[in-house]
Design goal:
With about 500 residues, this protein is α/β, with parallel strands linked by helices. Helix content is about 40%, strand content about 25%.
Length: about 500
């Protein structure tokens, strides 16, 4: 049985816990590998390696850090298909979808190849007689990332390239469900010339997470996952004196107005609802139709659903793969039953789907509900599966109120041909990322990703300019060089002039 170990100080390390977690091929249900689970001692080994490497890496010239990122960018680009296939083998998403994930991670590396510009401070001359003031941005030290299964390469790449380019050293705790791709990234970092100990990986579960959150030598923690865990990460990490950004769950709504291009809206609903089998924090899980929009939209959605090819992620023409584990499948199946029992209209039922030759895979087909109401569990909870709920609203104002009253605020969208309606939406909606005729408004790497309300804890969004700010701190320097005239002792508070 293949074993995925830790990566500490530039080497594969077995660890000391003796515990492992199974890794599956979701399309077949086959147990393909084991991930070693870290003890607190293993985490400490990784942190100490990072701490030792920090002294050298912090002093590395910005141009050297840039050059490592340029080389990493070329290596990731050259090996993108291999990386995508590693993701598909353990996550289940299609190779095309995995290639898109690699590309979005690659864009963050490209962003930080400009780190010399991004780290610039400010300078003000002669703020007082013979006195200048300027700012520096400096790294924090050893920082850590705790990342989810649903984007095993992209979400870590939202973190470690920015952290490392700004002069920090990094400890990654990826999901134990699909960890192999990050071992390959560690090898590519080494090939790009990154010194040993700057990038480290510990496989693990809650024991490793708690060791990271309480370790005295870790200055900051980045997290993406569910809201209950994000809240725990934020509270525990900040109580231990760490800077924390913790992105949580979502219940993303898409409003469709009666004047919308219904073909465009149907394409968007199917793509954003069922891509990656709904296992995206930016998936659309609720379509809010206004007026008679549902009567025009739902037939078009059903038509597109019927044509979807559900198959193993590496199969020719596959558009949607399986869920990541058997437990994930059972959870989604249970929610479909809850929605049916609560009185929602089950337009298309994905339960019982079987794929020829892969009957033991973790399959749930695309599922569509109509007449869903806000009191139902399928509306309230993040299902994280291929289940799309349709809520009918009488007015645009009612639809906006529905979104604004939801405890989550990650992403949202409106589909309309009315510019005034779109402007009203972007102005009034209480959500961090907004799409106008765009269903999944994930910003490119030169902006930053971040939700509102229970979708994010902490003051910083992730990657982009906010990521640079998170992984650095500002230092203000006020300087005066000796001049022939010495002013003598002054016990008053410093004044300008």
């Amino acid at each position: 049985m293949r074993v995925v170990n830790h990566w500490i100080n530039g080497k594969n390390v077995d660890g000391t816990s003796g515990r492992t977690s199974p890794i599956y091929n979701p399309a077949t249900g086959e147990h393909t590998a084991n991930a070693t689970l870290a003890s607190a001692g293993d985490v400490d080994d990784a942190v100490q390696a990072a701490k030792t490497a920090y002294g050298e890496w912090r002093e590395a010239p910005l141009t050297r850090r840039q050059n490592v990122m340029f080389k990493l960018r070329e290596l990731v680009d050259r090996n993108r298909l291999e990386l995508a296939r590693l993701i598909t083998a353990e996550h289940g998403k299609t190779v095309d979808d995995a290639l898109g994930e690699v590309q979005r991670g690659l864009e963050v590396i490209e962003f930080v190849t400009n780190i010399a510009h991004l780290m610039k401070g400010g300078f003000s001359e002669q703020v007082s007689t013979g006195v200048d003031t300027y700012t520096l941005r400096q790294p924090l030290g050893v920082v850590a990332g705790i990342t989810p299964f649903n984007f095993p390469i992209m979400v870590p790449m939202w973190m470690h390239p920015v952290a490392i380019a700004t002069g920090n050293t990094f400890v990654l705790k990826p999901s134990e469900k699909d960890p192999s791709v990050n071992q390959r990234i560690a090898e590519l970092y080494a090939a790009a010339g990154l010194p040993e100990g700057v990038f480290n990986i510990v496989q693990g579960d809650k024991e490793a997470v708690d060791a990271i959150l309480t370790h005295p030598d870790i200055a900051a923690v980045s997290f993406v996952g569910s809201t209950p865990i994000a809240k725990y990460i934020y509270q525990t990490g900040t109580a231990s004196g760490k800077r924390v950004q913790a992105l949580g769950g979502a219940k993303n709504h898409m409003i469709v107005l009666p004047d919308a291009d219904m073909d465009l809206a149907a394409d968007a609903a199917v793509s954003a609802g069922y891509g990656s089998a709904g296992q995206r924090c930016m998936a659309i899980s609720v379509v809010v139709t206004v007026g008679d929009a549902a009567d025009k939209l739902i037939p078009k959605v059903r038509e597109r659903m019927a044509a979807l090819k559900v198959a193993p992620g590496d199969a020719e023409g596959a558009e949607m793969g399986p869920l990541v584990t058997a437990a994930a499948r059972e959870r989604v199946v249970d929610y479909i039953g809850q929605g049916e029992s609560a009185g929602a209209v089950l337009v298309a039922d994905g339960r019982g789907l079987s794929v020829d030759g892969h009957e033991e895979g973790f399959w749930v087909g695309p599922t569509l509900f109509d007449n869903v109401t806000p009191d139902m569990s399928i509306y309230q909870d993040e299902i994280f599966g291929p289940v799309l709920s349709t809520v009918r609203a009488d007015s645009y104002e009612e639809a906006i109120r529905l979104i604004n009253s939801n405890p989550y605020g990650n992403g949202t969208a409106v589909f309309t041909n009315d510019g005034g309606a779109a402007r009203k939406f972007q102005n009034e909606i209480l959500v961090g990322m907004v799409g106008i005729n765009v269903p999944i408004p994930v910003p490119l790497a030169f902006y930053s990703f971040g939700g509102w309300k229970n979708s994010a804890f902490g003051t910083h969004a992730i990657y982009g300019p906010e990521g640079v700010n998170f992984y650095t701190r500002q230092k203000v320097v006020i300087s005066r060089w000796p001049d022939p005239i010495h002013r003598g002792v002054d016990l008053g508070f410093p004044q300008h002039g």
